[in-house]
Give the backbone structure.
Amino acid sequence: MNIFATPDLLLALPEVVLLAATCFILLLDACLSDARRQVSYLLSLLTLLVTAVFTAALPDGSHIGFSGLFVVDGVAKLLKLVTCGAVAAVFLYSKDYLIQRGLLKGEYFVLVLFATLGIFVMASARSLLTLYMGIELLALSQYTLVAFDRDSPVAAESAMKYFVLGAIASGLLLYGISILYGVSGTFDLAQLTLQFHSGAAHQVGLLFGLAFLLAGIAFKFGAVPFHMWVPDVYEGAPTSVTMFLSAAPKLAYFALAFRVLAEGLGGALDAWQPMLILLVVLSLAVGNVVAVAQTNLKRMLAYSTISNVGFILLGFLAGTPFGYRAALFYTISYVLMAMGSFAMIILLARRGFEADRIDDFKGLAHRSPWFAWMMLFLMMSTAGVPPFVGFFAKLYVVQAVLDIGLTWLAVVAVLFSVIGAFYYLRVIKVMFFDAPSESALLVASPAFKFLLSANALAALVLGVLNSNLAETIAKALP
Amino acid sequence: MLTTILFYVFATVLVASALGVVLSKNPVHAALALVLAFFNSAALWLLLQAEFLGIVLVLVYVGAVMVLFLFVVMMLDINIAQLREGFTRYAPLGVLVAAIMVAEITYVVWVRHLGLDLSSWAPAMPVGFSNTKALGALLYTDYLLPFQLAAVVLLVAMVAAISLTMRKRPGYKQQDIAAQVAVRRQDRVRIMKVDSEQVR
């Protein structure tokens, strides 16, 4: 009796390689002395490179494996490749920061790699079950990373908050999934699509489950009113961890929302569109208005994240292929800009000094004109000024909303992004027109400076070449 | 007939031990009563032909979880008198929860009388059917991916717990076996010549 059909492991080769390499680093690191910790760092970068190569080598088109629980398609491939790049950049940015604070430990790399595996699993999920396993893998690694600086009471506090609220969010998500299962009898997203075709939006069970699912998704994204954890966690975590939290996981949450809402419950658009509109308007309002009052740059960027999440969800609520593409475009460009902004904070920080207040950027133009300009690029791009990539990201999502006739929502989005421009411009004003409060030179490795410059310039280059990025995305997400 | 008798025996002991968990004054007795309750519910699973669940309940809950529980309960110095102080304050809430539960149980029992044939939900399995095998066949084929991912999640939890709690304390006493073995006589013993006349 042969009941065991060998699953198509080749489809999951990047995941297998990533997991095996991570376990190897975990074992090897236990035998390394502190002086040779760099080996783990280099191996982690190598792991990401190899994983990216294997991901790129995956076959084109949509392939289903593991009895329908796993899918490799264009979106999954694109998300995985961008994730590899973003995580590698986080490693490169954070090495010196970690060394200065005595935090360079193997567990940092191992946990980030496990989180990357979680993102990969979510990107390829074709069943609510797989999706949930990915979410937990990612979330558990994130909680630990936030608390990674064990001697910092602030980090411990924010990790506790994140953990408790995250557990509630996981509970909500699971509750939603279980109700959906109760109504439909399946975890499979393709089966769900068949069950909830258009016109199913009035089913009470579906609506009930959907409300919990959306609350879970909104929490993971950090959309209002499920945003309470974002500023505290962003401020409390070590900056290198904040950089990771703000960037790569957003791609995973894009996958979560895309797989559940667009692929699984696309037919029930009428049911989730109004809920998303509420989340979007609240996120845009709270994110942009509260950010104006912040003096801490990490908190300001946290509220900026909240408002940007509003824009990502704005693309989703259109419910059209163009809308999903716009949301993906927005997510990828946001990852780029968020990483650059946090890298600027790391650049200005040094041992015993975090540089996380806006005042710490005073007179940066006198201390380092080049990096003041880089920060200007990043802030302009996040604010949505042409010709930077952030402008086109906002343009596409607003276009998507206009296409479905929600003109008032587009007007609201533009109005709030104008309010939002204020606090980005304030950072620029502080850098260029205020007298420097200190004159210490910026110390960073050449690799760091090069990567940061490339990151900021990419915001400009991708803005000019936005049609190329849009084409790549359109190919991945037809 | 025999199964019915067995069911009532196990169920009676189960309810009695569950009452013991709630009512006993000594937390250690309560934990032990909970062990008994687990054993009896495992026996009920067996009666339902769910032998895998029954065995897992004993292995995991009795073998691991409850032992840990007992350790914690024995190590904590619980002041019963202090715990009882809040009883009257929380009594109304307790009564409310109890009332809701009684209402729910009544509702379930009432639904049963609506004519739903509950016995058909779990048809008797043929002789020799092993639900351990059936579960295993599902877990290692259709649900292989989530199963393996669950293992990874547990690994992450382990790495997280160790990396967050293990620290090198400054005054930490540790045996260095190699140093102990390699010790020479000169390191430990010093031979002194003491002149006898110096002693008074």
Q: What stands out?
A: Chain B has nine helices and no strands. Chain B has a mean pLDDT of 84. The interface with chain A takes residues 137, 140-146, 149-150, 152-153, 155-157, 159-160, 163-164, 167 of chain B (CB under 8 Å). The radius of gyration of chain B is 29 Å.
